[in-house]
């Protein structure tokens, strides 16, 4: 039997792996880096939404001093896999630093795998036909598919993913996350229904600097996957979060759409809504739905997407999973439950529940001022009750 | 020559009920019933009965019963009654046996071996009465990506022509000639009012149908009957017919008796002459020739209409489809072995071609392997019987399906397979004015609209059960199918997993 990563990520070989979860995200839109204390507190407050079979964090602005390097966080299912992976990395890249990711023994963390991080750059120009980023993606895909026992969980620049089997607070403790700072944090507590839990299967999912934490189950997984396979994405882990990460990579990085436009593909407006739009928006949204029908994410989901300098929250278009947004000055919070936001930021100015399919995007814009007003066009319509 | 053939049906008339009104005499297109005024009695020539129920339904006193004759042959798994009857007919005529409709042989019907999914607990099912449920489908080639002007954000992508469908079910090709004008008018109005398309077949577009041109697929087949600039201009889609599931590899023959004044004008041939469609297009002997015709038609219509190419599902459909996509087809229609016809040699109908389910799955898979699935829309045809068949076809990878037999059944057809005689008692597959006026085309359109509406409601209900609120999320999503009673190899071709896994 050839080596298959899905034997780890999807041991029963169900159609797909999916999970219910808690999500939390915070971004400082001035770009100021902050410790993860609040983010960890917030995700602990949603403890009931996870079951200890997965927790994780993505941190952006994580490795100042190594901004130009791709930071590969690699999980070794088997310590013997490390020499051959390192030989592979040395052959393909220029390695600046390799070290074991610092950890400490933590309550609830049993049999952790070996985790190393590698800071690397391309040794020269990428092979013809590849952009630098395409080349990194192809190498990550190759490692994850063929390099037995090694799995890249994080491959972006100046960011990193820390995740594993356990409650998120235990994962934070294990990885000593109190020692890190970032301008954007996302966090995830997992409640998987069909996997016993595997470190690589925890969220966030990552490709380059794009991370996704996800709560939900995609009924459209089968076609999302088949569509992405046409563009060279190997959905080897058989999880529905994986297709979300690849879809965003395709739409935003390769096809040049903004996160907001990508959101109108993933959770497209209804045709009846498009019909009523202004001509320009109507043309654009019609085109996006006609060209990318197979990337409509159908079924319940709430996601927080992280990219360098930006964070987006999005739910499916009929909002079958919860998400609350809030702002406090330059801080934008996204959370599965509103209470978690109030816990860590009692002085929060605006909280709102975005409509299904309505993206909430926060971007680092140094120098901008952040008035404390609601930054969404949505205003609730009150039904007028007639006197009778 | 004394015929050794035995009648198929027995017609029994209950004398205590019969009031000798002679409705049966007038209704039967095959002259089974006759009235003898001297005897004051009604008689039946059972040998001519086709079992179409027309007399049974219209007898006002319910006096008629039609049953299959329980003729006992010596049991023989090889020399079955049908085999013996066929040989007898050939020995008496020396001709090819003709038949109508789709194959009645027990080839596997894979739809019946595929079961759909539904959501439980981890994923809520959706109630289409409370939540939006979208069936909208666009037929036509799609680019691989949307490109935007980096300055203005305005899309610069040139979109090939798209045709919207409100329901993913189209009426398949049935020509004026093979069916009556009233039937075509019913199909055209139902298509227009249900937001879908009908297909002219190779019979041209009758002047009465030009107002429905925006809902017409105009066919260009090997005989080129009825093809002229305003015909191409009138249609919404142009379809090049290479083959059809009921008779892959052979042409067509509309006998001169059916070529009435109206048919002749529409087909642009003299009245009473046989309309012979050659087996191949004599300007298409290879894939590059097909490309030339596709682009000739696109040039002729200013690239404003999608060009579809219809083929019969045959052994190497996947490779052919890939070639057609690369040759510039916007839509590929695949017609399986159970596809119907107005007339075909029986041996070809029953023995040539492959089931649509396998061909569809193979074509969709191949186009994806080659990364060109977006270049074409896929229409599956040939034996689609119900909303569940439609949904299963879409899950296998079809963008939409064609129906023809189901549409005719909605108008009264009993699938008696005698279309080629032109004597259809239901007024469908005939040009005899006495018979064609039996179809009130406005009521016919209502029946067809009701059929599409009920299928649409059922499709929405099943989609909602799967936790899906737009049809595009099921398209090609084979994880929502499970197989029962199929071999590993069949499941591999269909790309589906066994139930329970």
Describe the model:
The complex is a heterodimer of chains A (388) and B (501). Chain A is an alpha+beta fold and 388 residues long. Chain A has a single domain (6-363), classed as 4-Layer Sandwich (Glutamine Phosphoribosylpyrophosphate, subunit 1, domain 1). Helix content of chain A is 27%, strand content 27%. Chain A is built from eleven helices and 18 strands. Chain A has helices at residues 6-9, 37-44, 81-92, 132-146, 168-174, 221-230, 240-254, 259-266, 271-275, 279-291, 338-344; strands spanning 19-28, 34-35, 55-60, 70-76, 93-100, 114-122, 150-154, 159-164, 181-182, 184-192, 205-207, 210-216, 301-307, 310-315, 324-328, 331-335, 350-352, 360-363. In chain A, strands 8-3-10-1-16-15-17 form a seven-stranded antiparallel sheet, with helices on one face. In chain A, strands 11-12-13-14-18 form a five-stranded antiparallel sheet, with helices on one face. In chain A, strands 5-6-4-7 form a four-stranded antiparallel sheet, with helices on one face. In chain A, a hairpin with a 2-residue loop joins strand 11 and strand 12. In chain A, helix 6 packs across helix 7 (240-254). The longest helix of chain A has 15 residues, at 132-146. Chain A is globular. Chain B has two domains: 9-95, Alpha-Beta Plaits (2-Layer Sandwich); 137-146 and 154-498, Alpha-Beta Barrel (TIM Barrel), CATH 3.20.20. Chain B contains 15 helices and 21 strands. Chain B has helices at residues 23-27, 54-58, 81-93, 181-194, 229-234, 261-267, 287-300, 317-326, 346-351, 356-369, 387-396, 405-410, 433-436, 441-465, 488-494, and strands at 9-13, 33-36, 41-44, 64-68, 98-99, 114-116, 137-139, 163-165, 169-171, 198-199, 216-220, 237-241, 252-254, 275-277, 307-312, 331-335, 344-345, 377-381, 400-403, 481-483, 497-498. In chain B, helix 8 (317-326) packs across helix 10 (356-369). Classes of the chains: A alpha+beta (388), B alpha/beta (501).
